[in-house]
Design brief:
The complex is a heterodimer. Chain A contains 20 helices and 25 strands. Chain A is of the alpha/beta class. In chain A, the strands form seven sheets. A seven-stranded mixed sheet of chain A has the order 6-7-4-14-11-12-13, with helices on both faces. In chain A, strand 19 and strand 20 form a beta hairpin. Chain A starts with 19 loop residues before the first helix and ends in a 26-residue tail after the last strand. The N and C termini of chain B lie far apart (47 Å). Chain B is an alpha+beta fold. The relative contact order of chain B is 0.16. The longest helix of chain B has 15 residues. Chain B has a five-stranded mixed sheet, sandwiched between helices. Chain B has five helices and five strands; from the N terminus they run ββαβββαααα. The chains are: A alpha/beta, B alpha+beta. Chains A and B meet through helix 7, helix 9 and helix 19 of A and helix 1, strand 4, helix 2, helix 3 and helix 4 of B. Chain B: This is (2Fe-2S)-binding protein.
């Protein structure tokens, strides 16, 4: 049975009606951490030392990520080719690193420069960092994902750039500004479409009215060819390499505005896509029916359980998918934002029937990625368009296509149950069904990707299934010891274009667990922070939680309609906790008003970058927990712009955000960062929502009306004209 | 095709373009000025924010005929030679950008706000609608306040 919600009202202070054993531990807690606590009254119950915790059952089975996680796997497989990473001496003592990882805002180029500066005993401004072209000799050492970049480069640094000549940590640990900040603020930073490639003409694509509809014919080619600026029209040939080339009809023009107008003038006949009959509700129903059963029966014990729906979400990086391709008879050159440049090069060479060394691929740092650029869809299209039209192609997805016909984080359905006996949690089971995650990028090189993709053209293959399970097992973990703990994923085959997403399986899985942790605590009449301290497995997790509880004044009185909420998380060998305050007085406009976040990455490289990633994670959590999701309806997302897909704006981001970076944990390995910032903040927001409104958070995003007029399927929006101020 | 004459970043340009072509495509595709970014094309994300006679416009939703004879400033024209505008300097000092794609628009919007309001309130800053997918909003807010202090 579930304990009823406490209803709207102020956040309760830590309970004073706990069992005697609890109070005893509180006292011990005070004693053990007196210097910390003396500054913050009212934190009773938060500092239970591990020696006084309840005797809890061992975690069964042991957690995979404690033994090996995805960052370990990338580090180990990247290590053998680290000596091949290029570091070149430039004039006047400067050196240039060709970074075999993809910078899309995470700050990894700056972190890499800091580590190299220390190794070579140089000041940071003597280091330049470029983005390495696709370098197949690097094998598994040119894939960006899994929050593994800085971890693997840190491990590989002894092998990069020759012998060490510097003393340790002169730059590492200092707060520095991004290497590309000056170029950014002056407009000099060149993204893909800013590259000066002569004669690469603006190109946009007409898309089917449903996802993956197939091209049949164009009914008005001549009329559209006669429109101003139009240079060429070409149906994009279907190819069947590692991943298929997305369907569409390309229009090349003198300007993107003219290409856009021509796309909207095209009359194209399409077949319906394979999921043309599917909508959010039918997708969720299919997922729910695919869930595996729990291992344990309810045992007649106290249980807390719930079912949770997650709508698809869009990566929606500010820079839409785009690529420049210059395809000639005997060679090709590509510019695009690419997390997997080697397999991109190999796939393009195979599609064009060219030797690998005749395909040059430039990985251009991008305007965001969040996992989306693990695939090279825009490159595949640009290559086919350049080949068909016989000239270089500068391809840009319209925002509407980027949201509707790009890739999404898979829709998911979760069922989870905690079982409690004699006041203790003895089991936590979680069953997850998601539209299968496309993992055909493999580990970034052709051999693995080709094996995963076999047989070509089928997104749900044995290889894909295996890689998704490996990703799940090596990324999703629990920071708690809840006895018998099982988390099982069932991928469901549906022809929706999916892709990894920042914390793809982790954020939903951990969000569900954090919500149920609050519900367990309520059932057992324990304070949510005290309860977590009792069940957290590792001291570093308890330390970040204590840090935020103190800094955020956990348990302070809150006015009606406001509440605090808490979440804790471990991922990629990093630990984080978050407490938010929420203003839920207006249900349709819930605001996160304050956030306190603690992050322990083992070895901090650049505090400014660490804070930035946690701030970005908070912003993303605010968005995807509260307001941002895709309504798939009749085989197409309704959302087609930021006015419809409600990602947070300035007014939605709290004015009071504090990030506490824990001091270096001696002897601990460096942890990941890029994805780590989502789960604790997501849990904190959902739990604050529950406490403020009395409603159980079960369907995400929580506030999800269709509050707009959708752009017609198969069309782009009509351009807008705004008068110029006098 | 009509010739459109106006100033960009202090220099005079004559460019052949239809009257109703969006300023963004004239800047990016015809003049090679790539600081203003495409993010939506329909005046939603504001990544293309520029100034016309010092006031913010979204270039994606501004017809080129409407800037004839006027002074267009893009992010490239904001600094005075090598001396950054105080807003750019504040952005550097606070390490605001992540991916950087929306930042030219954020900076141009901030400069416009500070032209209208020397000491913007949080509510004034909340009215900025430029999307930042990386989530730099907190630092943007701080940088606007720091720039306001610098500009006295």
């Amino acid at each position: 049975m579930e304990h009823p919600e406490s209803g709207a009202g102020p956040t309760p202070a830590p309970s004073h009606d706990e069992p005697p054993g609890m109070r005893r531990r509180n006292l011990l807690g005070y004693a053990a951490s007196a210097p910390l606590i003396s500054a913050a009254a009212g934190l009773g119950g938060l500092a239970a030392p591990s020696s006084a915790r309840a005797a809890i059952l061992p975690m069964t089975p042991p957690d995979t990520t404690d033994l090996i996680d995805i960052g370990d796997a990338v580090t180990v497989t990247a290590l053998p080719t680290m000596p091949l990473v290029k570091v070149n001496k430039l004039a006047n003592g400067r050196v240039r690193l060709e970074l075999p990882r993809f910078e899309s805002g995470q700050g990894i180029a700056t972190a890499a420069a800091m580590m190299l500066a220390d190794k070579l005993g140089l000041p940071l401004n003597a280091i330049e960092v470029g983005s390495a072209d696709a370098s197949p000799e690097l094998l598994y050492n040119q894939l960006t994902g899994g929050s593994s970049s800085v971890r693997s480069l840190h491990a590989g640094m002894p092998l990069i750039g020759g012998l060490a000549t510097g003393s340790a940590n002169a730059v590492v640990g200092q707060r520095v500004t991004r290497l590309d900040a000056l170029d950014i603020v002056t407009g000099r930073k060149k993204f893909t479409l800013d590259q000066a490639v002569p004669d690469a003409k603006p190109t946009m694509v007409c898309r089917p009215p449903t996802i993956n509809g197939k091209f049949v014919r164009i009914n008005n080619t001549t009329a559209v060819m006669g429109m101003p600026g139009v240079l060429g029209i070409a149906p994009i040939p279907a190819t069947n390499g590692i991943v298929p080339t997305p369907p569409g009809v390309a229009v090349m023009a003198e300007t993107f505005g003219q290409a856009w107008a021509a796309v909207n003038a095209l009359d194209v006949t399409w077949t319906a896509g394979a999921v043309a009959g599917e909508s959010n509700a039918s997708i969720q129903q299919k997922l729910k029916s695919a869930l595996l059963p729990f291992l344990l029966p309810p045992l007649g014990a106290l249980t807390v359980e719930g079912e949770f729906e997650f709508a698809a979400v869009s990566h929606c990086p500010m820079e839409t998918e785009c690529a420049i391709a210059d395809v000639r008879a005997d060679r090709a050159e590509i510019w695009s934002g690419l997390q997997s440049p080697i397999v991109t090069q190999q796939a393009v060479a195979a599609d064009l029937g060219l030797p690998l060394d005749k395909v040059k691929v430039h990985a251009v740092p991008s305007g965001g990625s969040f996992g989306r650029r693990l695939f090279w869809d825009a490159t595949l299209q640009a290559v086919q368009i350049s080949k068909a039209l016989g000239r270089p192609c500068r391809l840009m997805y319209h925002r509407t296509d980027d949201m509707r016909h790009g890739r999404v984080r898979p829709p998911m359905f979760h069922r989870a149950r905690a079982t409690m006996l004699l006041g203790q949690v003895i089991s936590f089971e979680q069953r997850i069904a998601g539209v299968r995650l496309d993992t055909r990028h493999g580990f970034g090189e052709m051999l693995g990707a080709a094996a995963i993709a076999l047989p070509n053209g089928f997104p749900q293959t044995v290889g894909n299934f295996a890689i998704e399970q490996v990703m799940f097992k090596t990324m999703v973990t629990s920071p708690y010891n809840f006895g018998v703990t099982t988390k099982l994923l069932t991928p469901v085959a549906m022809d929706i274009n999916t892709c990894s997403y920042r914390s793809v399986h982790i954020q939903p899985s951990r969000l569900v667990e954090e919500i149920l942790v609050d519900e367990m605590a309520r059932t057992l009449r324990k304070d949510p922070v005290a309860f977590r301290l009792e069940y957290l497995r590792l001291p570093r997790a308890r330390a970040v939680l204590k840090a935020v509880a103190e800094a955020a004044q956990w348990g302070k009185a809150m006015p009606p309609g406001f509440a605090q909420g808490v979440g804790v998380h471990q991922e990629s060998k990093s630990f984080t906790a978050c407490i938010v305050e929420i203003d839920a007085r207006v249900p349709a406009d819930i605001k996160v008003t304050r956030a306190t976040i603690a992050i322990d990455v083992g070895t901090p490289i650049n505090p400014s970058g660490i804070e930035a990633q946690m701030q970005g994670g908070l912003c993303e959590s605010i968005s995807i927990v509260l307001t941002a999701g895709l309504h798939i309806q009749n085989g197409l997302p309704l959302e087609g712009s930021y006015s419809q897909y409600h990602f947070a704006r300035m007014k939605n981001y709290p004015k009071d955000v504090k990030v506490i970076i824990m001091p270096p944990s001696s002897g601990e390995p460096i942890g990941g960062l890029g994805e780590v910032g989502l789960s604790a903040s997501s849990g904190a927001i959902a739990n604050a929502y529950a406490r403020a409104t009395g409603k159980k958070p079960r369907s995400f995003p929580l506030n999800f009306p269709v509050d707009f007029t959708p752009i017609p399927p198969g069309k782009l929006p009509t351009p807008v004209t705004v008068p110029v101020p006098a | 095709m009509p010739v459109q004459s106006f100033k960009v970043n202090g220099g005079h340009v004559d460019v052949e373009a239809p009257d109703d072509m969006a300023l963004l495509w004239v800047l990016r595709d015809k003049l090679g000025i790539t600081g203003p970014k495409y993010g939506c094309g329909i005046n939603v994300c504001k990544a293309c924010t520029c100034h016309v006679d010092g006031k913010a416009v979204t270039a994606c939703s501004t017809r080129v005929i409407d800037v004839r004879g006027r002074q267009v400033t893009t992010i490239e024209g904001l600094a005075n030679g090598n001396t950054l505008h105080p807003v750019q300097q504040a952005w550097m000092n606070l390490d605001v950008p992540q991916c950087g794609f929306c930042q030219p628009g954020q900076i141009m919007a901030a400069v416009d706000l500070l032209r209208r309001t020397r000491n913007p309130t949080d509510a004034d800053i909340d009215a900025i609608e430029n999307v930042c997918r990386c989530g730099t909003y907190g630092r943007v807010r701080e940088a606007i306040k720091a720039a306001a202090a610098m500009m006295g």
